[in-house]
Amino acid sequence: MALLSFALSLQDHASLSIFTISFIFVSYVFYMRYLHSLSKFPGPLLASLTNTYKAYYVYNLTLHEKLLELHTRYGPVVRIGPNHLHTWEGEAIAPIYKGGRNMGKTDFYNAFTAFNPNLFGGTDEGIHSLRRRQLSHGFSQVSITKLEPLIESQMKILIDKLQKCAETGEIVDLKQMLSLYVLDILGEVAFSKSFESQANGHAEELDAINDHLLLSGVIGELPLQDFWKTLSRLSPIPWMRRLMKSRNNLKRVCGECVKFKINNPSDRPDLLRSLVEAVDPQSGSRLTEQEINSEAFAVLVAGSHSTSGTLTLLFWHLVQNPEIMNRVYEEIQAVLGPLPGDRTAYPITGIEASLGYTMACVRENFRLNPVFTMPLWRRVGHAGGVQIGEHHIPHDTSICISNYVLHHNPSIWGNDHDTYNPTRWLDEKYQSEKSRFLIPFSIGHRMCIGKNLAMTNILKTVTTLLSLFEIEPVDKKQGVAVRSSGIGEMEGDFAVRVRMRAS
User: Which parts of the chain span the membrane according to its record (predicted)?
Assistant: First the structure.
């Protein structure tokens, strides 16, 4: 009898527990959907309840495509997290990214910190302003121009490899070749030495960078970041441990290069030297070794994938559209002339200003297939919230507008937004009106400081390779996809044949 009573008691406790949990869950769902300050904004039910909705699509490398799908279904402002809104309206750019301290960065960026917070990930506005002043000279176009010999030393290796493929008729994966090439350039300019990836034909660093971006992108979308970072180190799941191991390997490589540069100063012109010698013009302060590590790490991670990914997609559009590629080649020959035999590449000076059609192709690639797809979250700091267009965004809401979605908004770009059409940028009125909506390097005081280096690499590479080689695809394709955990790349390989152009 006592045993029966005990069993009934346990059953009652279990029933009560189930009821309590069910009540709490139903109350939470009701509050988030009907009483929360963001309940008036449309979006998927699951997204309004948990941040794992965003993290899932980051893990699957398709958040940018999912966001576009949601805007097509729900309209200009979509709730994609319990306290997160995403917009694709062009008029939202300035309020969000030029709002200063009242639109500060969220905890999302902490997930990308490997050493100290760097220029990209730092959320303290005062420290950001100081760091920007310290680094601005080293990343200026004048300073980047001095790095051209380092860039061309790696371009010479790429050209030699392509020449051999032209002679043998070998099919090459241009995506892989460009990835190794850009990584070696960053080794030269950011770490004072090449990674030798072109010579080896592979690079563990590329996989490690992908792992770091995936780890950071997923954890950044979740609460309790310290818990997830600890779990990734201790987890019995191999892929989670691999992600953290990759980040630690990158940190080790970066730290060793920085320490060597500090202990062995030289006159070699590169970004690492600029970081070591960087001085704030207002206070005279210099970067610590840990801060140099942080900035060098950011250059490696952001610079490699964003530049190689952009180059790959640009070449893909040109190669798949030979009439466009021929027009670019003709412009290069007419304006810059044949590449002199004693030069490896065209100098960067004057290219952007003089090659109107080539730049239209670059802009259209940035618009159609931006590789930087990361949602750059900002938190509304205005006490009474902020008005963005017709929408009032409450205080403390996280909000962003990501490139891929913005660049595919048909109300801005028209119904042909998914078509590669460089001629749209040749209309001066169109360019004047639409350029403000094209933000591949972000905008405002948080704009990517590496823009000059990226554009120098892109323009020197495109003009030089097209002047020397005819490139044709092995397979003619109708479209291309980007897979991205934040900084993406073309899905699949990029098989081409190359031929030397007639002298």
Answer: 13-31
Question: First and final CA of the chain: distance in angstroms?
Answer: 102
The full DSSP string for 118-171 is -TTT---HHHHHHHHHHHTTTTSHHHHHTTHHHHHHHHHHHHHHHHHHHHHT--
**The two three-digit tokens of residue 94, written as one number:** 């300035």
Cβ count near 498 (within 10 Å) = 23
Whether residue 165 is annotated as binding a ligand: the answer is no
pLDDT digit string (tens) for 457-473? 999 999 999 999 999 99
CB distance 286 to 134 below 8 Å: yes
Q: Name the percent of the chain lying above pLDDT 90.
A: 59
pLDDT tens-digit map of 239-253: 777 777 777 877 887
Number of other CB atoms surrounding residue 268 within 10 Å: 12
Distance CA 82, CA 192 (A): 45
Number of Cβ within 10 Å of residue 249's Cβ equals: 16
Identify which of 405, 485, 482, 478 has the alpha carbon closest to the alpha carbon of residue 175. Answer: 482
Q: What would the DSSP string read from start to end of 283-348?
A: T--B--HHHHHHHHHHHHHHHHHHHHHHHHHHHHHHHH-HHHHHHHHHHHHHHT-SPPTT-SS--S
Conformation bin of residue 284: beta by default, left when phi > 0, alpha when psi is -120 to 50: left
Phi first, then psi: give them for residue 187, nearest 5 degrees. Answer: -60, -45
Report the distance separating Cα 316 and Cα 474, nearest Å.
11
> What's the gap between Cα 464 and its chain centre?
25
pLDDT in tens, 269-294: 787 778 788 777 788 888 888 888 88
Q: Which amino acid would we find at residue 117?
A: P
**Cβ atoms of 328 and 236 closer than 8 Å:** no
Among 268, 118, 288, 94, residue whose Cα is nearest residue 188 = 268
User: How is the chain split into domains, by residue range?
Assistant: 19-500
CA–CA separation, 166 vs 476, rounded Å?
Answer: 20
Q: Which pTM does this prediction carry? A: 0.91
The Cα-based distances of 500 to 164, 175, 403 in angstroms read 10, 19, 36
d(Cα 380, Cα 399) in Å, to the nearest integer?
8
Taking 70 as the threshold, does the pLDDT of residue 2 lie above it? no
The C-alpha angle with vertex 292 and arms to 123 and 233, in degrees rounded to 5, equals 70
For residue 375, give both structure tokens: 């949602």
Cα 268 to the chain's mean position, in Å? Answer: 29
Token output for 243: 């992600």
**Measured distance CA(107)–CA(124) in Å, rounded:** 11
CATH superfamily, region 19-500: Cytochrome P450 (1.10.630.10)
